[in-house]
Design brief:
Elements: H1 2-13, H2 16-19, H3 38-52, H4 69-84
Length: 85
């Protein structure tokens, strides 16, 4: 799951010249680090909902929850578990 999210972020939010300059991993600050902004957060949320067949409430789509790939993956996993319950 982390690899899918990382690939999406690289492809959607980093320019070609930034890809080599940004050390992007599952703990890289995305929002506080300026990689993802509030508009991008909305598109990232929609991508996650479609890709993983979940619904993320606006309350759950907080900047804190979306600040690292690890946090995003935890959020997606929690929503998948709710859906499967």
């Amino acid at each position: 799951m982390n690899d899918i999210i990382l690939e999406y972020i690289r492809n959607e939010y980093l320019d070609e010249d930034e890809i080599d300059d940004v050390d992007l991993d599952e703990h890289t600050p995305l929002i506080s680090g300026g990689i993802v902004d509030s508009f991008s957060l909305v598109s990232l949320k929609r991508f996650l909902e479609k890709k993983f067949d979940i619904t993320i409430s606006d309350a759950d789509a907080s900047p804190e929850a979306f600040d690292t790939v690890a946090r995003i993956a935890a959020l997606v996993s929690a929503h998948q578990a709710k859906k499967g319950a």
